[in-house]
Amino acid sequence: MKVDTLSISKRIHAEWQKFVTNGKYDTGIVRPQIAGSWLRCQRAGVDPYDARLHQALDEEGLNRVLNENEKLIKIARPFMANLHKFVEGSGFVVVLTNENGNIMEMFCDNDTLQNPMTQNFFPGASWHEEEAGTNAIGTALVLGEPIQVSGAEHFCQKHHCLTCSAAPIFDANGKIIGILDMSGASHASHLHTLGIVVAATEAIMAQLRIQQKNYELALVNNRLTNFFNTVSDGVIIVDKDEIVIDLNPAAKAMLGKAAQNILGTPVSRLFDYRSSLKERKLAINKPYTDVEIMVDTQDGLCYCLASGEPIVNGRGEITGGFIILRPIKQVQNLVNRFSGYNATLQFSDIIGESAEIKEAIRLAKLTATTTSNVLLQGESGTGKEIFAQAIHNGSAKSAGPFVPLNCGAIPRELIGSELFGYEEGAFTGAKRGGKLGKFELANGGTLFLDEIGDMPFEQQTALLRVIQEKKVARLGSDKMVPVNVRLICATNKNLRQEVEKGIFRRDLFYRLNVMSIHIPALCHRKEDIPLLFMHFLEKLCRDWGCKFYVEPEVIDCLKQYSWPGNVRELQNMIERAANLAENGIIAVRNLPAEVYGVSSHIQPVSIMQTVQDFNCREQRQELVRDAERRLIIRLLNMHAGNVSYVAREMGVSRKTVYNKMRVYAIQN
Question: What number does CATH give the domain 5-211?
Answer without folding.
Answer: 3.30.450.40
